[in-house]
Specification:
46% of the residues lie in helices and 3% in strands. It is mainly α. The chain has a three-stranded antiparallel β-sheet with strand order 1-5-4, with no helix packed on it. Belongs to the terpene cyclase/mutase family. It comes from Rhodopseudomonas rhenobacensis.
Length: 654
């Protein structure tokens, strides 16, 4: 964590140009035929494990070659501790380990093989599979390993609750909403997996798995609220058998209707794996045949998430074409010139028709008069556009129209701006998908041991929206949304000078996002908030010149930055942040640029095995394979551009 030597390395223009040219060629080489980008999006072992288990739950014909490749992937990810982690070289995670072990056993791995024995001992030595999270417990219940007493009651009659009730679907996040609706049908009908091989997991428990009751309180939960909700769960469990059958059937019908309105074709419910898998299992228990179109299309959509190589395969949690394309376009626009700007323009032209203009998604429950105008993260997810993607797309469009003098994106930008301004929460911040999703007590229900039931405003998304409004010409004096957003960012700066990063890992990502926003909004670079942030970034630079941060930074007892190996993407964020703060000539920036140049591979991009993005803090992390391809290029091109100008000021929002 040392800043190391204060001397500024000499960075030759010729070598810098060569590095940028190689990285540009590499990024262009990943374009799809129609001009967009989509890179692999890798999570931990849980999604590939769940995919294998889904096939056996459904009783599908075996695919020996595919199972062998996923098995190879899972075995490679096994840690030295014997289990599986949530990130590269991470700590043992009980739920990930249980699922990976179960999946490997299901495809035929001998339980006495060294890797299986090691995994079993690692799980048992930590108290056994009883410590699995709620989602793993639902899976174990459906396979008959544990009983339905081991999971919280999820009455499908929730579909009937009014908005004023303490629990309502529109009081939880989009991802929780789409996951829980088909899961409620499964919980109501309590299906049993086909499991033709009758594979069990008794050896992972220190007690009879059929005797296991409700999960314990999670660390983030309040004892008082947890006990209250656990008591409600007990009451519901007692009376659930007496719920009127006609009412239950009606509620199930509403759940199916909710799902079928949001299926997105092969992109699936919510366009993310868990609700897609739950939907297929739901149709099975409801008796719909395999060729029933919604079931068949969703099942095909799940297979589209597979990444199949020569020796390994895995299942992605979703795909990220809008995000990847918009960020790639920003990097190329920063590079400039005939080799980069036309491909960026083509990418933006691909993005333009993906804007959601004719459908009001779930967000409209709290903003019924607001016109739609956002972009989603995936190819198709019209009910759930997000503000982060939308702001990044708008800033790319604005940069393109500045360069060409064209007005072709004006209407798209105006609609997106209207939507983003209308989605601001009452505290001045912006969330990813929803507005005023502030019912924090819901993270204390037994189902929420993951602590990710909500989508509240966050520093990184707020910063992106502030950046967008500022780039479009607004100021704190002319725009109340912008002024309120800036006030939110000032309030949320930590004493050490950093900002939290919800969707990227972690304080480096948040600080990059906010410094870009503060610069775009016109704050003086000597503003105390900016100086504190700069000092913090410089203090956490590694001795090799790079920056790094890992999942430990999301610990509930976080007490300050802990050193982690440098990565290309996190180094790029730190560099972009420092340059936004006016530090292009600093020794820290020069060392960071030298780190990127020295770690660039012969293919023109950077190799990055570590996870630098976040799905849900402490629960689910992501490795965007594109991050090490466009962020370093962006940072190097920005450095070259600023060193070539007199103002040394970043004139765009990010």
């Amino acid at each position: 964590m040392q800043s190391g030597i204060n001397e500024q390395p000499m960075i030759g223009r010729e070598a810098l140009d060569a590095s940028i040219d190689a990285a540009t060629r590499a990024l262009l080489g990943f374009r799809q035929d129609d001009g967009h980008w989509v890179f692999e999006l890798e999570a931990d072992c849980t999604i590939p494990s769940e995919y294998l288990l889904l096939r056996h739950y459904l009783g599908e014909p075996g695919d020996v070659a595919l199972e062998a490749k996923i098995g190879n992937y899972l075995r490679r990810l096994q840690g030295a501790h014997g289990g599986w982690a949530l990130v590269h070289d991470g700590a043992f995670d009980i739920s990930a380990s249980v699922k990976a072990y179960f999946a490997l056993k299901m495809i035929g791995d001998d339980v006495d093989a060294p890797h299986m024995a090691k995994a079993r001992e690692a799980i048992r030595s930590r108290g056994g599979a009883i410590h699995s999270n709620v989602f793993t417990r639902f899976m174990l219940s459906m396979f008959g390993i544990t009983t339905w007493r081991s999971v919280p009651v999820l009455p499908v009659e929730i579909m009937l609750l009014p908005m004023w009730s303490p629990f309502h679907l529109n009081k939880i996040s989009y991802w929780a909403r789409v996951t829980i609706v088909p899961l409620m049908v499964l919980a109501a009908l309590k299906p049993r997996a086909v499991n033709r091989l009758q594979v069990g997991l008794d050896e992972l428990f220190l007690q009879d798995p059929k005797s296991i009751g409700m999960p314990a309180k999670a660390p983030h939960q309040s004892w008082a609220l947890f006990k209250l909700f656990a008591g409600i769960d007990t009451v519901l469990r007692t009376i659930e058998p007496w719920f009127p059958k006609r009412l239950r059937a009606y509620a199930i019908g509403l759940a199916v209707k909710f799902i079928e309105e949001r299926l997105n074709g092969e992109d699936g419910l919510g366009a993310i794996y868990p609700p897609m898998a739950n939907t297929v299992m739901m149709y099975k228990v409801l008796g719909y045949p395999e060729d029933y179109p919604p079931r068949a299309i969703t099942r095909r959509g799940i297979d589209k998430l597979l990444v199949i190589g020569d020796d390994e395969a895995y299942c992605q949690p979703c795909v990220s074409p809008i995000w990847d394309t918009a960020l790639s376009c920003h990097a190329l626009l920063e590079v400039g010139g005939e080799a980069a700007v036309p491909p960026a323009k083509r990418g933006i032209d691909w993005l333009a028709p993906k804007q959601v203009l004719d459908l009001k998604g779930d967000w409209a429950v709290k903003r019924p008069e607001l016109r739609p105008g956002g972009w989603a993260f995936q190819y198709n997810n019209a009910h759930y556009p997000d503000l982060d993607d939308t702001a990044v797309v708008v800033m790319a469009m604005d940069r393109s129209r500045r360069a060409t003098g064209s007005a072709e994106y004006d209407e798209a930008i105006a609609r997106a701006r209207e939507w983003i301004e209308g989605m601001q929460s009452d505290d001045g911040g912006w969330a990813a998908f929803d507005v005023n999703n502030l019912e924090y007590y819901l993270n204390n229900i037994p189902f929420s041991d993951h602590g990710a039931m909500l989508d509240p405003p966050t520093e990184d998304v707020t910063a992106r929206c502030v950046s967008m409004l500022s780039q479009l010409g607004e100021t704190a004096a002319s725009s109340k949304p912008l002024a309120d957003g800036l006030a939110y960012l000032r309030r949320t700066q930590l004493p050490e000078g950093s900002w939290y990063g919800r969707w990227g890992m972690n304080y480096i990502y948040g600080t990059w996002s906010v410094l870009c926003a503060l610069n775009a909004a016109g704050l003086d670079h000597q503003d105390p908030a900016i100086r504190k942030a700069v000092a913090w970034l410089e203090s956490v630079q590694n001795a090799d010149g790079g920056w790094g941060e890992d999942a430990e930074s999301y610990r509930l007892d976080y007490k300050g930055y802990q050193q982690a190996p440098s990565t290309a993407s996190q180094t790029s964020w730190a560099l972009l942040a420092l340059m936004a703060a006016g530090e292009v000539e600093s020794a820290a920036v020069a060392r960071g640029v030298e780190y990127l140049k020295s770690t660039q591979s012969g293919k023109g991009y950077w190799d990055e095995q570590r996870y630098t993005a976040t799905g849900f803090p402490r629960v689910f992390y992501l490795r965007y394979h594109g991050y090490a391809k466009f962020f370093p290029l962006w940072a190097l091109a920005r450095y070259r551009n600023l060193r070539s100008t007199n103002s040394k000021a970043v004139g765009v929002g990010m």
